[in-house]
Amino acid sequence: MTISTQSTTVSNGVNTEALIGARGAFEQTPEAAQFTFHSTCDWIEGTFNRNTINSYFGLGQNHERKRTFTIEADHPEVFAADDRAPTPPEIVLSALASCLTGGVASVAQHRGIQLRSVRAVVEGDIDVQGILGMDPDIRNGFSAIRVRFEIDADASADDINALVAQSQKRSAVFDILTNPTNVAVSVA
Amino acid sequence: MRHIHSVIIGAGQAGLAMSRCLSDRSIRHVVIERGEVANSWRSERWDSLRLLTPNWQSRLPGFVYSGPNPDGFMNMDGITGHLKAYAEISRAPVETGTTVLSVTGVDRNYRVATDKGDWLCRNVVLASGACNRARIPGFAAALPEDILQITPLGYKNPAQLPKGGVLVVGASASGVQLAAEIAAAGHEVLLAAGQHVRVPRHYRGRDIQWWMDTTGVLDMTTREVDDIVRARRVPSLQLIGDHRIQFHDLNALGAAGVEVTGKLAGIRDGVALFSGALANNCALSDLKMNRLLAEFDKWAERQDEAGNLGVPERFGPTLVPASPRLSCDLTGGRIRTVVWATGFEPDFSWLRLPVFNGKGQLIHHEGRVAPGIYALGLPFMRRRKSALIDGVGADAGAHADHIMRTSGLRVA
Ligand SMILES: Cc1cc2nc3c(=O)[nH]c(=O)nc-3n(C[C@H](O)[C@H](O)[C@H](O)COP(=O)(O)OP(=O)(O)OC[C@H]3O[C@@H](n4cnc5c(N)ncnc54)[C@H](O)[C@@H]3O)c2cc1C
């Protein structure tokens, strides 16, 4: 079955034409589709640290943004920290929510669905005995992650469910969390 | 070296249909087959397999099923016999027991080298099949050595497998059928399911294939889908050729004691790692099924005789286990066999022409590969049904017409 792309005046603020154009271009030159993202983390004090994010590599060259972004992380008081910023796992949850929410907007635009509001509520369960090294059978990371979407849009329940499903199918962070990745850590 | 107008490689349904279409147009040709007629159906399928498509749907140019049970499903002897009868009735000039070793260009002709001599011809039809090799992920090499690896092309029945657990990778028609059969034989079975397509055997009182055929879903052309690359990769339907089995899906397998988990994502230190995306793959599959059924309902509303059809139905969702396993230690001795039901690919290693893309896949437009080179039986080649028994005939006819036209031009 095809999903017809409607040319109505739906506007979710996503330029899907540009994205589809990019797909065409990458088919011709797959090298241009090779991106590398960076984040640089500096320790400040205790568990408090700050990431700065600016340049990335893609389309065969390095790109400098006009703005440098920062993401800080810390731990809450129950872990004897100062709670100056969210914990890294919470940042991971927010990355998942952002990725899926952006995906919902893009897919909705492509399918001609006008969104009025979208909210994703994410929860992740962690048994901290894992990070504390108390029980080797308990993993450090989330044992389960749940995302609940609340979406108000001009579409049937099935169409909305399809938006959310397609967004997961095409999400980088969903993939990162659901599939293993080789991680190499070295010391300069 | 022998000279002939056209050489067809392969005597499955594709090669036989092509031969028939060329004979109907009085074009001299030969069909070269490494085994016997219907070799793939004879030797590369498992014992219990029946076609997923009903008997009436094995229509080929100038040949239809005329037995007593049009709604039945042929077993492998049945389809082999069907194609043998077709070859005889069509007087297909098949050279059996002859393997094509290479196809090369010679001026504006082609040389087809075989283990029984060479042919020089203007046209070559690649009817050698789309399922010659199992498509196995690269990380298969990381499997512990004492685990038996088998594919649906080599699997015959559960007696081949050592005692113990079996990991079946892939949940298309092959994967679900093998998982169920192996579990019924008493093995512990773990099924890794990625993207899959769930459909009921019957809908509103008719076979699903009747719906796909009658409503035109199978006739859809490459221009009617918005992403042909994706459409060509859609896995086969979770079906079995048995009217008693309405669903051969993950729910049915779960009820039969098969443990279902996500797609096999990799193997690390002897441990199989599964994706945590099973729930979404099930949701996608349910949504897709419901969209298909809704299309059928819309079609039915437009028909006069809609009264003859049953009422619209909707089926419960796939029941996803609360927390499907994310890993399985393959060194512990519990899993003794891995079945790669991860899809198939053609083998054109003998085709020595610059007609492949960076991934080694054949480049073609509607099955036309290069002047004088034609393909048949590839997934969604011209229409959705191109790789099916029922679909290859129309493609063969189009190629035969093209060969007529281009031959005419060359003569002039
Ligand atoms: C498990 C399974 C179940 C299927 N069930 C159905 C179904 O129910 N209904 C349906 O419509 N379709 C079904 N299909 C799809 C399709 O009909 C089959 O794959 C069918 O075999 C394709 O026919 P073909 O003629 O294109 O290729 P094949 O049947 O594979 O025929 C190709 C022939 O070429 C020969 N050959 C290959 N290489 C050479 C060479 N180098 N030299 C000489 N000869 C060569 C082979 O020996 C073979 O005989 C199924 C496929 C599979 C794998």
From TrEMBL, chain A:
Coiled coil: none annotated. Pfam families: OsmC. Gene3D superfamilies: 3.30.300.20. InterPro entries: KH_dom-like_a/b, OsmC/Ohr_fam, OsmC/Ohr_hydroprdx_reductase, OsmC/Ohrsf. This is Putative OsmC-like protein. It comes from Roseibium marinum.
UniProtKB/TrEMBL annotation, chain B:
The keyword Lyase does not apply. It comes from the Bacteria. Pfam families: Pyr_redox_3. Keywords: Oxidoreductase. InterPro entries: Auxin_biosynth/cation_transpt (IPR050982), FAD/NAD-bd_sf (IPR036188). GO terms for molecular function: flavin adenine dinucleotide binding; monooxygenase activity. The keyword Transmembrane does not apply. This is Putative flavoprotein involved in K+ transport. It comes from Roseibium marinum.
